[in-house]
Write a structure and sequence with these properties.
Layout: E1 10-14, H1 32-42, E2 46-50, H2 61-67, E3 72-78, H3 86-93, E4 99-105, H4 121-129, E5 133-137, H5 140-143, H6 146-152, E6 157-160, H7 176-184, E7 189-193, H8 203-221, E8 226-228, H9 241-252, H10 257-271
Parallel strand pairs: 1-2, 2-3, 3-4, 4-5, 5-6, 6-7, 7-8
């Protein structure tokens, strides 16, 4: 990689898979011991681990695995905002040492305005009171209501994962671009440049295509609210870790040294309040 990775670099989006208790490791395990050498070789010092699926039978072994890894700076845990026990789970999560926020998967919901439903508001209020982050797995269809939600909870930091998954493969920048513009106008909305690459297409071809999507994000969010995430291990299906990192840097460039420090660590450290 030709770009010098700045000290303190943070991968703002990766996850682990943990086999059930007592079970052997899967054929393709993705645990801290597998990610650590990739980070070291790339010059990335720390990572934010995101729990991308609901806990299995209320078991949060994944969080324990992440907390035991020295390079894990913070954990974003899964939370069903509308669940009757959401506040109980949030209280339990708050006692964990590396807990920084929660993730919800709006893409699982048919309604575009699911986050504005009455049964989700108590958990959202609790997140704001604790000044935590809310990672959002969303598509373009959910962005229309995000400004309303961000205005309702101004002290809650909303993080759009994977740039809201635009149709990069089809080159469809609209209506995604218009909706991202409205979301970026909210000072408490942040964005991850993550989940960029797809299998069976060359990394170089994809990187060139991505510029029409990442360039407006740089203008809208600035490097102050834009952060790198590898989306490992999902990204391993499409590229090596180094390739995912290089593609993200090239996609948001050209950037000054100060801007790269923000994109590759400073923004994530501020957003997730990493030590």
């Amino acid at each position: 990689m030709s770009v010098q990775i700045p000290p303190g670099a943070v991968d703002a989006h990766c996850s682990f898979t943990q086999p059930p208790g007592g079970a052997p490791e899967p054929d393709e395990p993705f645990l801290p011991k597998h990610l650590a050498p990739l980070l070291e070789a790339s010059g990335v010092e720390r990572a934010v681990v995101v729990q991308t699926h609901p806990p299995d039978e209320k078991d949060d072994r994944l969080l324990e695995v992440a907390e035991a890894a020295p390079f894990v700076a913070g954990v974003v845990a899964w939370l069903d905002l509308a669940a009757p026990a959401a506040l109980v789970r949030l209280e339990r999560l708050a006692r964990r040492p590396k807990f920084m926020g929660v993730r919800c998967d709006a893409e699982r919901e048919a309604a575009n305005d699911w986050l504005l439903r009455d049964d989700a508001q108590p958990a959202l209020r609790a997140l704001e009171e604790r000044e935590l982050t809310l990672d959002l797995a969303v598509s373009t269809r959910h962005l229309r209501r995000l400004p309303e939600l961000a205005a309702r909870y101004p002290r809650l930091r909303f993080v759009i994962e994977h740039m809201a998954s635009p149709r990069v493969d089809l080159g469809q920048t609209e209506p995604w671009g218009t909706m991202m513009r409205a979301a970026a106008a909210c000072p408490n909305v942040w964005c991850k440049v993550s989940g960029l690459l797809t299998p069976d297409v060359s990394v170089r071809a994809q990187t060139a295509r991505l510029r029409s999507f990442t360039a407006p994000l740089v203008r809208l969010f600035g490097f102050e609210r834009l952060m790198f995430g590898s989306d490992w291990p999902a990204s391993a299906q499409a590229s090596s870790y180094d390739e995912a990192l290089a593609a993200a840097i090239e996609a948001v460039g050209p950037a000054s040294d100060a801007q790269l420090r923000r994109f590759l660590g400073g923004t994530a450290a501020e957003c997730y309040r990493l030590d």
